[in-house]
Design goal:
The complex is a heterodimer of chains A (267) and B (256). Chain A has helices spanning 55-63, 102-111, 118-131, 147-159, 177-194, 205-211, 242-260; strands at residues 11-24, 27-40, 44-48, 70-75, 78-79, 87-90, 165-169, 197-202, 214-219, 224-230. Chain A is 34% helix and 26% strand. Chain A has 7 helices and 10 strands. With 267 residues, chain A is α/β, with parallel strands linked by helices. Chain A folds into 2 domains: 11-86 and 165-231 and 246-267, P-loop containing nucleotide triphosphate hydrolases (Rossmann fold, 3-Layer(aba) Sandwich), CATH 3.40.50; 97-162, no CATH class. The termini of chain A are far apart. Chain B is 80% helix and 0% strand. In chain B, α2 (37-49) packs across α10 (219-251) and α3 packs parallel to α6. Chain A binds chain B through residues 63-65, 83-85, 87-89, 91, 93, 95, 97-99, 108-109, 112-113, 141-144, 157, 161, and chain B through 148-149, 151-158, 162, 166-167, 170-171, 173, 251-254.
Chain lengths: 267, 256
């Protein structure tokens, strides 16, 4: 494995006064407003909130697929202005290329990474397929795999080029509950083993508590940070753990309270 | 035991041919107007033996291949350009859409005036028949590539040429292939029109053979050549396009 370019900086990903607007049918819509956030090296941060709170927009901004209108996003001190290998994304749908088999899909990002020999690339791709438990499926095309397996391949594909940050955009929402529970376990295992910085977006509060070191609660119209929760439960966490359920209930209560608040400027 | 699937159509086909043969032989129609299957068979056999059918088929296939390859070689990059640039789409794209609806026979007078009665005229007509359908198909299939693939590829560092070769083109391939198939069908039609209308000394193709049959009032030859034309079209589909399409569908899980 190539050595991890470790940095000593305390906070790796810094969002300062980030605002993003879109042209909607009803004119200019503010998707997220004045977001200030710091993600530490090796931290698992979860952005949670109802639909319309701008959490997916925030992730697109972090990925560099969209540009901020105001404020800045910095990774290791450098401005994020375009998509890059240092921030790989797991999408809601697996986004695997149907014309490539599992191994070739994982190799796609690795082939774009300079300074590796073909042998090293193949070795890395097989290592990550093995890590997600699909070593025997390397020649299978996406349509021959189940939804859960496809998301596993997508996870391997995002991990293989060894990004600084892994961005996950509701990657579990299209899966059945059993597969999802399995993947929660896998992700936590990989997170503790590989010490990866992860930003996950979800609307599932239990999922957020199960996976996150820190859960950032966003509220909609426009998307703003309402509250930040530190989750100190020991890992590996299980989604059915009562302590976890209690914490999730607290966050849900906080969210409902925010949603019930009268909006400024509205009569 | 199950009867083979091919048996029924073969039996029905033979019955129709037999009925046709009997009908013509019974003298109810003039066999100058309606030749019997055996008469067509006789022409076919003699044309095979004197080599005229083989040479005409060869001349036609060569023109078709050349025209199709040139048409595709122009159509694919132009279609890609139209997909990429809205300026190209509003100009070349709209023009292609219009010209695609123009029956390719309409290019024959243009070709004869511009090039004269020669090989270049025929080639021009075939290329014009092919290129617009290919441009439209490539443009549409590139435009309908899932944005998610592009987003995923871009986060992994794919840009420009790499994005085209490794993501856009493979993703659009099914649409491009069906566009080529359509282009091939148009090329085939336009070539027949060209060969019937353009008298060329440089080569005697199937269309010329058809035309000669008309001038000689040889209905057996006319119908015989028509059957060969149908056969060539079917064969191209069977040995070229169908296997590619089946492979594409199977490898992407769109079949079964």
């Amino acid at each position: 494995m190539p050595a991890h370019p470790s940095s000593e900086s305390h906070s790796q990903l810094t969002l300062s006064n980030v605002t993003k607007r879109f042209h909607g049918r009803a004119g200019l819509v503010t998707a997220v407003e004045d977001i200030n956030l710091q993600v530490k090296e090796g931290e698992f941060l979860v952005l949670v909130g109802p639909s319309g709170c701008g959490k997916s927009t925030l992730l697109s901004l972090l990925a560099g697929l969209e540009q901020v209108d105001e404020g800045s996003i910095k990774l290791d001190g450098a401005d994020v202005v375009e998509p890059g290998r240092d921030r790989l994304v797991m999408f809601q749908q697996d986004a695997l290329f149907p014309w490539l088999d599992a191994l070739e899909n994982v190799l796609f990002g690795l082939r774009l990474k300079p300074g590796l020999t073909d042998a090293e690339r193949s070795e890395a791709a097989r290592y990550y397929l093995d890590l997600v438990g699909l070593a025997d499926k390397e020649r299978a095309h996406p349509h021959e795999l189940s939804g859960g397996m496809r998301q596993r391949v997508a996870l391997a594909r995002s991990l293989a080029p060894n990004p600084r940050v892994l961005l996950m955009d509701e990657p579990f929402s299209a899966l059945d509950a059993l597969t999802r529970d399995q993947l929660y376990g896998d992700i936590q295992k990989i997170f503790t083993q590989r010490k990866k910085t992860i930003v996950l977006v979800t609307h599932n509060i239990r999922e957020a508590v199960c996976l996150g070191d820190r859960v950032v609660l966003l509220s909609p119209n426009p998307g703003r940070i309402r509250q930040v929760f530190n989750i100190d439960l020991p890992r590996p966490r299980r989604i059915n753990d009562p302590a976890l359920a209690t914490l999730a209930a607290d966050i849900t209560t906080a969210l409902s309270a925010h949603l019930a608040e009268p909006k400024e400027g509205l009569v | 035991m199950k009867t083979p699937r091919a048996l029924v159509p073969v039996v029905i086909g033979l019955l129709i041919l037999g009925g046709w043969e009997w009908f013509v032989r019974s003298g109810r129609v003039d066999d100058v107007l309606v030749p019997a299957p055996t008469q067509i068979g006789e022409w076919f056999w003699s044309a095979l033996r004197d080599g005229s059918l083989a040479s005409a088929t060869w001349v036609t296939m060569r023109r078709l291949m050349l025209g199709f390859v040139i048409g595709a070689a122009i159509g694919i990059p132009v279609g890609a350009l139209c997909a990429r640039s809205s300026l190209a789409r509003d100009t070349i794209g709209v023009l292609s859409l219009g010209l695609q609806t123009l029956p390719s026979v309409c290019w024959v007078p243009v070709a004869i005036i511009a090039f004269g009665q020669n090989e270049a005229a025929v080639l021009f007509v075939v290329v014009m028949g092919t290129v617009w359908a290919v441009v439209i198909a490539v443009q549409e299939s590139v435009l309908s590539v899932q944005p998610l693939y592009l987003r995923a590829a871009m986060t992994m560092g794919s840009r420009g040429w790499h994005l085209w070769v490794h993501v856009i083109f493979p993703a659009a391939l099914p649409g491009i292939i069906s566009g080529l198939k359509q282009g091939w069908a148009f090329a085939w039609r336009s070539l027949m029109a060209a060969e019937i209308f353009v008298v060329i000394l440089s080569g005697f193709g199937l269309g010329s053979l058809l035309h000669a049959g008309r001038e000689l009032l040889r209905m057996d030859q006319v119908v015989g050549v028509m059957l060969v034309v149908v056969g060539v079209g079917l064969l191209a589909d069977l040995i070229f396009f169908s296997p590619i399409e089946r492979w594409l569908r199977r490898s992407r899980g769109l079949e079964r």
